[in-house]
């Protein structure tokens, strides 16, 4: 608003540039905050997508000695699932038979494949090696290990990093402070002329250095008159009261 007034009225000495500088600073704070937030959300979304890609859509259910391909949503706790060579583990469970090396690096961070045999636990999202495993399901769907990791990543995405919290705190303090300072300055310069009753230059002199202003001016009949005798008065330090009728 202050910058718009300066452009419209073109008042001499009006700080139009300063108003626009403050506007640019506030906008920069907001843009920087939104940019950081966008980066965090984008990276979190990419991480969630990679984790979701680890979960297969189907599982190979073994029932009554027969194997059938079923959607993962139809698998229940206690079912027996076959993990084929090179396939993703769709559920959490315990191996009942078979032997294979399972790559759990994308899930648990283990850099090397882990050998799995009967009695070992497997987690959803892991990559099976060259062997075959029969796994008794202990957790599936939202209760599986992979789904819990995805949920943790999504919860972390909803939170803001420390830098964004710092920017928000600065903005919460900065904007009200600027508005309060502007209002106080406006009231101040509206009240000072009523109290001092002088020109703007003398107002600033009285506000900044009142003791010096008192030495250089005298008041008579509510009019401010020069008080120094030029040039002799300056050299001698003597003052005289100006003639009100001159």
Automatic annotation (TrEMBL):
<keyword id="KW-0812">Transmembrane</keyword>
<dbReference type="GO" id="GO:0005524">
    <property type="term" value="F:ATP binding"/>
</dbReference>
<dbReference type="InterPro" id="IPR008250">
    <property type="entry name" value="ATPase_P-typ_transduc_dom_A_sf"/>
</dbReference>
<keyword id="KW-1003">Cell membrane</keyword>
<feature type="region of interest" description="Disordered">
    <location>
        <begin position="224"/>
        <end position="246"/>
    </location>
</feature>
<keyword id="KW-0472">Membrane</keyword>
<keyword id="KW-1133">Transmembrane helix</keyword>
<dbReference type="GO" id="GO:0005507">
    <property type="term" value="F:copper ion binding"/>
</dbReference>
<keyword id="KW-0547">Nucleotide-binding</keyword>
<dbReference type="GO" id="GO:0005886">
    <property type="term" value="C:plasma membrane"/>
</dbReference>
<feature type="domain" description="P-type ATPase A">
    <location>
        <begin position="54"/>
        <end position="154"/>
    </location>
</feature>
<feature type="transmembrane region" description="Helical">
    <location>
        <begin position="18"/>
        <end position="40"/>
    </location>
</feature>
<dbReference type="GO" id="GO:0055070">
    <property type="term" value="P:copper ion homeostasis"/>
</dbReference>
<keyword id="KW-0067">ATP-binding</keyword>
<feature type="transmembrane region" description="Helical">
    <location>
        <begin position="173"/>
        <end position="192"/>
    </location>
</feature>
<dbReference type="InterPro" id="IPR059000">
    <property type="entry name" value="ATPase_P-type_domA"/>
</dbReference>
<dbReference type="Pfam" id="PF00122">
    <property type="entry name" value="E1-E2_ATPase"/>
</dbReference>
<protein>
    <submittedName>
        <fullName>Copper-translocating P-type ATPase</fullName>
    </submittedName>
</protein>
<keyword id="KW-1278">Translocase</keyword>
<dbReference type="GO" id="GO:0043682">
    <property type="term" value="F:P-type divalent copper transporter activity"/>
</dbReference>
<keyword id="KW-0479">Metal-binding</keyword>
<comment type="similarity">
    <text>Belongs to the cation transport ATPase (P-type) (TC 3.A.3) family. Type IB subfamily.</text>
</comment>
């Amino acid at each position: 608003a202050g910058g718009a007034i300066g452009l419209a009225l073109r008042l001499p000495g009006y700080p139009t540039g300063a108003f626009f500088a403050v506007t640019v600073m506030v906008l920069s704070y907001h843009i920087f905050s939104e940019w950081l937030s966008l980066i965090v959300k984008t990276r979190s979304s990419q991480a969630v997508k990679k984790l979701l890609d680890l979960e297969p859509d189907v599982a190979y259910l073994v029932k009554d000695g027969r194997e059938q391909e079923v959607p993962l949503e139809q698998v229940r706790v206690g079912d027996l699932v076959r993990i084929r060579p090179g396939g993703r583990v769709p559920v959490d469970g315990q191996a009942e038979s078979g032997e294979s090396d399972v790559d759990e690096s994308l899930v648990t961070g283990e850099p090397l494949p882990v050998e799995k045999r009967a009695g070992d636990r497997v987690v959803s999202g892991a990559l099976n090696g060259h062997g075959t495993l029969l796994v008794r399901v202990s957790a599936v769907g939202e209760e599986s290990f992979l789904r819990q990791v995805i949920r943790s990543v999504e919860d972390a995405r909803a939170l803001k990093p420390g830098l964004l919290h710092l920017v928000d705190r600065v903005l919460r303090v900065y904007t009200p402070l600027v508005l309060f300072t502007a209002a106080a300055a406006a009231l101040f310069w509206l009240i000072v002329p009523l109290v001092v009753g002088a020109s703007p230059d003398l107002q600033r002199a009285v506000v900044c250095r009142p003791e010096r202003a008192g030495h250089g001016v005298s008041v008579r009949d509510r009019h401010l008159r020069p008080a120094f005798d030029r040039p002799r008065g300056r050299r001698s330090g003597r003052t005289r009261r100006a003639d009100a009728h001159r």
